[in-house]
Amino acid sequence: MNDFVIPAPPVPTIPTTDGGLYPVRRVYCIGRNFAAHAVEMGHDPDREPPFFFQKNPDNLDASGTFPYPPHSQDVHHEVELLVALKSGGSDIPVRHALDHVWGYGVALDMTRRDLQGEAKKAGRPWEIGKAFERSGPVGPLMPVAQAGHPDQGRIELRVNDDLAQEGDLNQMIWKVPEMISYLSKYFELAAGDVIMAGTPAGVGPVRRGDRMRASIEGLGDLAVSVT
């Protein structure tokens, strides 16, 4: 007997620029992957081994709205490149890593900074600050055939038309092939896995009524309203 004992939850998806839907399996997020952001968060920007945390697949949201979450008075924006895999495996060599990429998009890693800070001080996991409902606004994914493999290009975020974050993808400490290869040493990657590739300096708070516009050169814009 293979019947589900409760209704099966829907598969989380991200729309694509070619009109399809990309099913999400797992969400890996790299921390402090831009040197200037590492400095603003009080850390040494030297190239130390990367570290990752996770969001839940259904945290990703393409609705264009971000509901201000409960139990926080300090929610921050973080604009990021999103990498979507079409295949995976274990111990993937750096030189073959990009063969596993389906496409790229623009995303936001919204963070309950006050709750994250409390977790850090207590030596606890970050999920309460990172993996809450609709904490990952995303734009449409662009396939590699259209986007190529962007390793440079402007990345920025504007809040109410004011520039808040800016940088270039070439400033990432760990590049996309390295991230894929590193993760595959500890996890068996697979189709449907996405990687949020880190944020440049300038993270800061948002308020209800704010309008965010994230963009990455060659990948378009993501407009999100805070409600």
From TrEMBL:
The record's EC number reads 3.7.1.20
| Keywords associated with the record | Hydrolase, Metal-binding, Pyruvate
All copies of domain Fumarylacetoacetase-like C-terminal, residue ranges: 27-226
Cell wall biogenesis/degradation is among the record's keywords:
no
Which molecular function terms from Gene Ontology are attached?
acetylpyruvate hydrolase activity; fumarylpyruvate hydrolase activity; metal ion binding
Q: Which Pfam families match?
A: FAA_hydrolase
Protein name in the entry: Fumarylpyruvate hydrolase
The scientific name of the source species is: Limimaricola soesokkakensis
User: Which gene is transcribed and translated to give this protein?
Assistant: nagK_2
